[in-house]
Design brief:
This protein is an all-alpha fold. It has 22 helices and no strands. Among the domains are: about 80 residues, no CATH class; about 90 residues, Tetratricopeptide repeat domain (Serine Threonine Protein Phosphatase 5, Tetratricopeptide repeat), CATH 1.25.40.
Length: about 400
């Protein structure tokens, strides 16, 4: 339902409570489905209905007369939704609001993924490599902090946007990571009915909007370029059986060259700022892969150098894992495998890419049984159908 971000943002601004806003919207949306005829202005109807339900809840559960009276003064959706906003997109507006500097960067991103993107808590937990109960606790605490600290739900002045930009970009990056890992579209199909079916397309739209609003921020341009380059390969990611096709095996003729060109333009603009950052480096890595469409090869030494820079800018086990795969391409599978085996296995146990990478390099050095066990570990982590089919194909080939 396209009205969701607008209405949730408006309700949150009134209620100062994300849980209450989401619950009020859900109840109003359920009521709307039962109507014989759709309202002329669905967003306005949902806001009024949601606000009434929230007021009823307050009257029954809290008896907070003054708060109820203050809320009751707002009777017209137009008062909320027609005010001129410096951010012309309600979902992006709510994203900036969720990324309040009083919350930790990762917590802000997790909260934004839940509230704005509608990702299931279990999927968010996978992105942060933690258990689902731990992530649910983090999100619950973040919502409680927003509520108890009285954090304002108004959009901050434009001069304060940069202090929230990092968390906004991280939320978009993680949302796109979730969408991109699901080549067959199962995740998008499983999202609530009030969310956009094409999560990857929505993240691309929001990333480009951030870049348009903040053209002086090179990292915003870098993320937009990164998303465009990844999205350019959407048409080549599945085979006829619906199995995922690895990047190295994709047919370059099926890539979207217009997206690649647009990404190169954004990267050129970012370079003009003279300030590098991790999103620009990640985009440069993706562009190196995209050049295979023109040069018929990947310049792996250059990719490895870029991963060296990225690891310095953004040290993490996942970046180190990707760098190890680049080392394997340049120096040999044994060298790459040694680097992977030196990573903290317990921290990466829930990361499918870790097991898949190990399986690939183990197979290349002739350790087939261990490679099969690594693939079994990846399959045990419940991959989406397209990835599962590809992993099963590899497992069968090893057997």
């Amino acid at each position: 339902m396209a009205a969701r971000p607008r209405v949730v943002a408006a309700l949150a601004a009134q209620l100062r409570d994300l849980d209450a806003a989401e619950e009020a919207f859900a109840e109003a949306a359920a009521s709307a489905l039962a109507l014989a005829e759709a309202p002329r202005d669905l967003a306005a109807w949902l806001f009024v209905a949601g606000k009434r339900r929230a007021l009823d809840t307050l009257r029954k559960a809290r008896g907070e007369a003054r708060k109820v009276d203050a809320l009751a003064e707002v009777t017209d959706m137009a008062d909320i939704l027609t005010l001129p906003e410096p951010i012309p997109d309600e979902r992006l507006r709510l994203l900036f609001i969720c990324c309040h500097p009083a919350l930790g960067a990762e917590v802000r991103a997790a909260l934004a993924l839940k509230v704005i993107c509608g990702l299931p808590v279990g999927r968010i937990a996978q992105l942060f490599l933690v258990s689902e109960p731990a992530m649910l606790q983090r999100i619950t605490r973040a919502k409680a902090k927003v509520r108890e600290a009285g954090i304002a739900f108004e959009l901050p002045p434009r001069r304060d946007w940069p202090e929230r930009l990092g968390a906004v970009l991280l939320a978009l990056e993680l949302a796109f990571t979730a969408a991109y890992a699901d080549a067959g579209g199962e995740l998008s199909a499983a999202l609530p009915e009030d969310m956009d079916a094409d999560l990857g397309g929505e993240v691309e739209r929001l990333a480009l909007l951030v870049a348009e609003l903040l053209p002086e921020e090179p990292e915003a341009l870098g993320l937009a370029a990164l998303v465009l380059l990844a999205r350019s390969r959407a048409g080549a990611r599945l085979d006829r059986a619906g199995a995922m096709v690895p990047l190295s095996q994709q047919d370059c003729a099926q890539w979207d060259y217009a997206r690649i060109d647009r990404a190169r333009g954004l990267m050129d603009a970012a370079v003009q700022a003279g300030q590098s950052g991790p999103y620009q480096v990640m985009a440069a890595i993706q562009l190196a892969h995209a050049r295979r469409a023109f040069d018929r090869r990947v310049e792996w030494p250059s990719v490895l150098r870029l991963y060296d820079v990225l690891l310095a800018l953004r040290p993490s086990p996942m970046v180190a894992l990707s760098r190890a795969l680049a080392v394997a391409q340049v120096e040999g599978a044994a060298e790459g495998l040694a680097l992977i085996d030196a990573l903290p296995a317990e921290r990466l146990a829930l990361a499918r890419p870790y097991h898949v990478a190990r399986a690939d390099l183990l197979a290349r050095v002739g350790r087939g049984q261990e490679a099969a066990a690594a693939l079994d570990a990846a399959l045990a982590l419940d991959p989406p159908r397209a990835e599962r089919l590809w992993l099963e194909q590899r497992r069968t080939a090893l057997a």
